[in-house]
Amino acid sequence: QAPATYRYDVFISFRGEDTRKGFLSHLQVALRQNQIQTFRDDDGMDKGGLIWDELLHAIRNSNLFLVIFSENYASSRWCLKELVEIMERKNNKNVVIPVFYGIEPTHVRKQSGSYRRAFDKHERSSEDRCHVQQWRTALTQ
């Protein structure tokens, strides 16, 4: 159930090593200058807390989602878990905006190139194997 008011206007899902120091920092400054309240996973996270619980709470309390697909996004199980939750919110009528940063949309949708390599690794991991189909579906959407 969607909250009556949201704590965050925008939740940003991204792979830090690809985007944090350039594109993302400039984007966040521009959003904040326009009084748009954003959440990204390195903002105010309780380093000693339960990180997934905090992320889940932020996702559930955000109005709009900005997913920055980059070369290594699919290599992160955290990013893929966030994406599954975000796509569930989309089904609740929240808006999801994909941004393709240095990657072709077809590589994301069809899991080719670096996304195929990432999924090859996920499929070999006993920890990830049970989530692979769910992650593939979220990327295709």
From TrEMBL:
User: Which BP terms from GO are recorded?
Assistant: signal transduction
Keyword Nucleotide-binding (UniProt): no
GO molecular function terms attached to this record = NAD+ nucleosidase activity, cyclic ADP-ribose generating
Top EC category: hydrolase
- Enzyme Commission number: 3.2.2.6
Keywords attached to this Swiss-Prot or TrEMBL record, sorted alphabetically, are: Hydrolase, NAD
User: TIR domain: from which residue to which, for each copy?
Assistant: 6-141
The UniProt entry, under InterPro entries, shows:
TIR_dom, Toll_tir_struct_dom_sf
What domain of life? Answer: Eukaryota
Reaction catalysed by this chain?
A: NAD(+) + H2O = ADP-D-ribose + nicotinamide + H(+)
Pfam families given in the database record: TIR
The protein's name in its UniProt record: ADP-ribosyl cyclase/cyclic ADP-ribose hydrolase
* Biological source species: Arachis hypogaea (Peanut)
